[in-house]
Amino acid sequence: MSLKQSYLFMVFAALIFGGQVFSGKLFEEAGVSFVELMIIPGFLLPIGLIFFLKKDIFKLTPLAVKYIAIYISTCFLICIGQYAPLYMGVSVSLTLLLMYTQPIWTMLFSHFFLKRKLQSYELFVFLLIVSGVYTLLGIGELTGSVLGIILALMAGIGLSAEVFCAEKLSQNHVSASVTYFWLFLMTAIPFLIIGLFLSDYNPDLFGLNMFNFTRLDLWGYMLIFTFISMWLGNFLMFRGFQKVPALHGGLILLLELVVGVILDITILKTSLTWNMILGGSMILTGNVFLIYYASRKKPIEQPVFEEV
Description:
The protein is mainly α. It has one domain (18-232, 259-294). Helices cover 73% and strands 0% of the residues. The chain is built from 14 helices and no strands.
């Protein structure tokens, strides 16, 4: 695969990802619960993959298992932060903007846990994104529940590790199909347990009504959503990272934010307030600024582990 094709794969992945949160809102309005939105794609995708993988699903090196385990943890946070806020009155646009606070969590982790001194441009980005979040949440009328907003911020924490994991697994030739088999299956199981115990407590969030099979049309839409949004988007991103550096990939994936906001405005008719426009612009600018300056630094050599 050529470098140009790798970059095109990343662009198409970003465009697909731009419709994920928007699609989640459509499912929420159609009566699909949050847990159903998590577990149905989470089981449909592994079922489809298992016929192609067979015994290969167990061919994993210890280091590959480590990265996939981290990937599962990050995706669990992202899934909650991406979709749960939609069930709590938080708009698609605000959810996406809060998800892209990811750089501040990465910098905090690097500084306090890895003991790495932040560069001047990183401090500027940190202050710019924090100011953007304050503009979004601290000025003007706040839409959606406080819990929903906190959960959307949690997705930013997950995103801070997702790109790193995807890049490492892809560049070290770990099978994309094997990775996503375990990723979706192990993410779905905890949500299934939650649904079984809490479905009566809050049907909108934890209900399992689709398993009555009275809405076959929703199952059809869920199959399409699983194939395009979950499998194809992740597959394209995974393959793209084989040759596209994480920093460039991160910049391309910002298209997700732009596409999601456009869909929210044009189709869901969500009105953007001045503080959302200003705060969102600050967050987007901070992401672009960080990626631009970080891409000028000399990359650090990373260990390679054997193909699985």
